[in-house]
Amino acid sequence: MLVEMVIDGTDVPEGGTADDAAGALLLRIADGDRAAFAELYDMLTARVFGLILRVLVNRSQSEEVLQEVFLEVWQSAARFAPNKGQGRTWVLTIAHRRAVDRVRASQASADRDVRAGLRDIGIPHDSVAEQAELGIAGDQAVTALGELPEVQRETLVLAYFGGYSQREIAALVGAPLGTIKTRMRDGLTRLRNEMGVTA
Known about the structure:
By secondary structure, the protein is mainly α. It folds into two domains: about 1-125, Orthogonal Bundle (Rna Polymerase Sigma Factor, Chain: A), CATH 1.10.1740; about 130-195, Arc Repressor Mutant, subunit A (Orthogonal Bundle). Helix content is about 75%, strand content about 5%. β1 and β2 form a beta hairpin. α2 crosses α4 (about 85-120) and α7 packs across α8.
């Protein structure tokens, strides 16, 4: 007997994943299927917007980035490779990258304004070293995440950037809950080692 699970309001048979549906839609979008794009948008827009909003905090900027994400999905759907990951993860990765890019651009603009203001009033200020350290730590984290095996990276991206629980991730990727817990534990351990964090 098939056990039906509900994820984000979508019925998914046991052993199936919501990401399979997103991946199938992406393949249709790559062929220019507008109906598939509308369906993917309806399926993922709330989750994508939630991820972007968590990164940016600013609602209006998040709405702009949401539009940019789905424009990129429409334009680059042909680059989606089902054998390298799942559709939902691919879209969430684009969303996270776009949100981080927006944060970096906003920070760079703010830093320029601060430097110009300090130069104008002549007060010495050494926040450059502090900002450089923060930037380096963020770059190290992104690099370290890229060094993880795909299954560990996918699990961590879904958990920390997608906001999914371990049980939801297990359903999404079609793996046992214990396997997901192990992937997360091992992935976090490798991330710490890659970044030289001891604790």
